[in-house]
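Q&A log
Question type: sequence-to-structure
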Amino acid sequence: IPAIQVNIAGGRLPPADAAGNIFLRYPVGIFSRSKS
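Response status: OK
Response body:
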């Protein structure tokens, strides 16, 4: 999922494990909104 990859590359999200947990808890819309 590009949005998550971009945020991880930008250092916005914690490591992959934590990012996976966050992704399971919140809809993709949050990531796309935080990007814009």
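Response note: The chain has one domain: 2-35.
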